[in-house]
Amino acid sequence: MRKLKKRTKVILIVFITLISLVAIAAGGMYYVAMKQLDKVKYSPLPKDKKEIGIDENIYTEENEGIKGNYINILLIGIDARHPEDFARCDTMIVATIDKKHKKLKLSSIMRDMVVTMEGRGTMEGLNTDRINQSYGYGGAPLTTKVINENFKTNVQDFVKIDFSGMEKVVDAIGGIEIDVKEAEIPVMNNYIRELSRLQND
Q: How far is CA 102 from the centre of its chain?
């Protein structure tokens, strides 16, 4: 009986120790995560939906049921090498969080697509331009507005990243493996030399 009590006591001590270690690890991860989030610059979009191109009549009787089940976030990758550089969108992806079906959907938008862009354009009064130019004209708010207006979407949040930020993300996840084709090597070497030169400036 004493052996059983002693064994139970040991198991209890081990269990409490493990729980404590997990709690400490979780606390450490939370602290690190919060420290990293402190480095993120938060730039909210205008609260007025009209300012970011959202149609108030986007929901009809037919699709009213989906309202509130989805969250759309615009992921923007810009081609700036330095924060002060003029930038365009190299990448635009709408990340849709489907809360009803618990899925994440990614919709990529072609950067050279010609779209309606009121007050902008390569020709005066034309009001059309390549969609990747929108960021250079008005940053993330204008890019979001142009996407909402042209594709009847309901995007109210965005995440932006540049070359330097992408490098840090790749390093943070331990790197990525890429299958490089023979014909791609010269092009990649040119980019590597360019980025190395910029980092040493």
A: 18
Classify 49-161 by CATH class: alpha beta
Distance of alpha carbon 58 from alpha carbon 77, whole angstroms: 27
Q: What is the CA radius of gyration of the chain?
A: 24
Q: How far apart are CA 18 and CA 21, in angstroms?
A: 5
In the chain, domain spans: 1-40, 49-161
C-alpha neighbours within 13 Å on the C-beta side of residue 27: 6
**DSSP type of residue 38:** T
pTM for the complete prediction? 0.70
Tokens of 184: 């791609």
Q: Is 7 helix (H, G, I), strand (E, B) or coil?
A: helix
CA separation for the pair 140, 142 (Å, rounded): 6
Give the tens place of pLDDT for each residue, 113-144.
999 988 877 666 678 889 999 998 999 999 99
